[in-house]
Amino acid sequence: MSDHTSRPSRRGVLFGGAVVAASTLAAACTSNSEDDPAPAAQAGTLGGDNDKPGKQVTLGFSAPAADHGWIAAIAKNAEAQAKKYPDVTFKPVEPTNDINQQISAVESLIRAKVGALVILPNDGEQLNQVARKAMDASIPVVNLDRVFPDKLSYRTWIGGDNYGMGVSAGHYVGKKLKDKGVSDPVIVEIQGIATLPLTQDRSKGFADALKSYGFSVTAKQDAKFTVESGNQVASNLLRAHKKIDALWNHDDDQGVGVLAAVKQSGRKEFFMVGGAGSANAMREIKAGGVLEATVTYSPTMAASAIKLGRLIAQGKGMADLVEQQAPQSVTLASETITKDNVDRYMPLGFES
Amino acid sequence: MTKTRHSGGTTPQAPRKGAGPNERGGALVSLTRKAGNGAPAGVGEIRHLGLVAALVLLCAAGLITEPENFATSGNAVGVLVLAATIGVISVGQTFVIIGGGIDLSVGSVMALASVWATTVATQSYGPAVMAMCAILVGTGSGVVTGLLISYGRMVPFIATLAMLVAARGLAQRMSDRRTQLIRPENDAIEALSTTKLLGLPLLVYIFAAVAVAGWLLLNRTTFGRRTFAVGGNREAARLAGIDVRRHTLLLYALSGFCCGIAAIIIMALTTTGSSTHGDLYELDAIAAVIIGGTLLTGGRGTITGSILGVLIFTLITNLFILNGLQTSDQLIAKGVIIVIAVLLQRRGLRSPA
């Protein structure tokens, strides 16, 4: 540009100043600290003989890095529960999404000879070997949610029930429509990532439960567990069906986008059920809008896993069972949160 | 200081002083023609006719398969709303590709802008600052890639790939991988999707404004002519007196600016900022631009074509969901359409020569 002289022009100086001012402003905007604290991490209350201080134990903990509100809540809940016990030394390792890093992290816990390990693997198949190694070194492993294929690799498995989530949602939808006396209802389902086994389990549970009421899913479409995909799929689905009776959305995080789409369409003739149990979904349920219920897949399971790990390391059984030792597997029920019981669940909700 | 001056946004530099710039403008026009393979304007229109025909076919398919749901004004508005984000991004992408580059970072930059604009700190300043923040972050990211490409002499593919990864990472870091909801007091942003003017949500007007502004900038200004020249033949453009590096920088800044606007739209649509927004948008945007008749090698292309391309893709998604078909089938259909469009283009190029 030959018409520019080397002397900075007035426009240039002004613009430069504006850029500096703007970038200062933008830089001031990165902070994300909240004044009002997020709901505290969840841990059970103390009570019963088992919670009395016992043998001093060290619990190792390894989980993936938080790429979803749910996983973030897992780590928080585990730590909060462990801190409640004076007889537990909590030893978490750096959360990572890298398989090899998680393997070496678990190996370091084995070398440290912890009393028990609580592991949420990035991938059950790939972490199986190292879990087995821990068990072979007589360190009991509590396998959290994503299951190891080899039963010799863990002492106890505790996790959620995806099929059960679908069943709970199906029962809520089915019962409500039956009570209303709707015949041949339009039931729409927004899934998560369609290729995942967990999505297929949820869908199957939903269909099976609906069948017991003589209903079936009219249309289902897969989203990607993201807000944006939820919004896109929902806004198209709403146009595909002029009248909908019920909608089940698999995941509360993508549900934020689904709810936005419902609001944009101005539709109110149907009710919606969510999945997972995020704090935001619970606030919506409490406010009483189109979202009437959500079925849980609660990250509180991490707190329960820590409790189990402690019992196993101390050689105790579960207080409510007759057995001397903790059970081999615990499948958590998917609970249905509605306006009636939302206050009870609110403290358990996780920020997505 | 000179650098910041060069990043002077998107305002075209109209030739003002004396005869010099005007002559250069004249040289540019002939250069552009050459760069455009000597294709007369008619070819572009014929190609657009093809795209319009494809749209008509899709609409016919919609009318036949889902007569009572497809041909509603609600559905038409819905398609425009869903086309808005990717449409705005495609306008910026069209400029970059015509200018001989490519921008792979669009989706991540939009995600970063949406996250930056919805942090607790930004939200405390109100909706106007949030919108400004999104645009600044978008443009800023564009300036960074632009500098790397023009003055750092990096290949556009590599530089924007680096930005794709880094911006997504920064967005995740800043949001702690959480979905950041827009607070109730800032629902002016959300109102862009719920407030309607003449039956259309406000964000559709934003989309239209960006498209029209893009068209004017490309076809009616020196900036546009220079873009064709730079993309058509870099060396010739340099010899004709264009500051090619500076122009390249501006193109990427413009693309970033569009990502910033798209971030505002996605925030309005989803009521959130999230690091997961805009996943694979780069591919959608590039595909739309390519089926719109813009040459991937640069030097030739139209905004109208890109917008039609975006509408075709959005309409396919709409049709498939209306008919209850799964995502996998949509992907196959989109792939086939890209191939057909490019094959047709090649014919269109050959015949007039």
Task: Please describe what this structure looks like.
- Chain A: Residues 29-56 are annotated as: Disordered.
- Chain A: Its main location: other.
- The complex is a heterodimer of chains A (352) and B (353).
- Chain A is α/β, with parallel strands linked by helices.
- Chain A has two domains: 49-160 and 300-332, Response regulator (Rossmann fold), CATH 3.40.50; 162-296, 3-Layer(aba) Sandwich (Rossmann fold).
- Chain A is built from eleven helices and twelve strands.
- Chain A is globular, with a radius of gyration of 25 Å.
- Chain B has 353 residues and is an all-alpha fold.
- Chain B has one domain (83-350): ABC transporter involved in vitamin B12 uptake, BtuC (Orthogonal Bundle), CATH 1.10.3470.
- Chain B contains 17 helices and four strands.
- Chain B has helices spanning 2-6, 19-35, 41-65, 67-70, 73-98, 106-117, 120-123, 127-150, 156-175, 188-194, 202-220, 222-232, 234-239, 244-270, 281-291, 303-322, 327-350; strands at residues 180-181, 196-197, 200-201, 272-273.
- Chain B is globular.
- The model of chain B is unreliable at 1-42 (pLDDT under 50).
- Chains A and B meet through helix 1, strand 7, helix 7 and helix 8 of A and helix 1, helix 5, helix 7, helix 8 and helix 9 of B.
Please summarize what this structure is.
The complex is a heterodimer of chains A (352) and B (353). With 352 residues, chain A is an alpha/beta fold.
Per DSSP, the total helix count of chain B is 17
CATH fold naming of chain B: ABC transporter involved in vitamin B12 uptake, BtuC
Number of helices of chain A: 11
Structural class of chain B: mainly alpha
The first-to-last residue Cα distance of chain A is 51 Å
Q: How much of the sequence of chain A is in beta strands?
A: 15-25%
The helix fraction of chain A, in percent, is: 40-55%
- What order do the SSEs of chain A take from the amino end to the carboxyl end, as H and E? HEHEHEHEEHEHEHEHEHEHEEH
Q: Give the strand order of the largest sheet of chain B, numbering strands 1, 2, ... along the chain.
A: 1-4
The second-level CATH architecture of chain B is Orthogonal Bundle
Q: How are strands sequenced across the largest beta sheet of chain A?
A: 2-1-3-4-5-11
Mean pLDDT of chain A: 88
SSE topology string of chain B = HHHHHHHHHEHEEHHHHEHHH
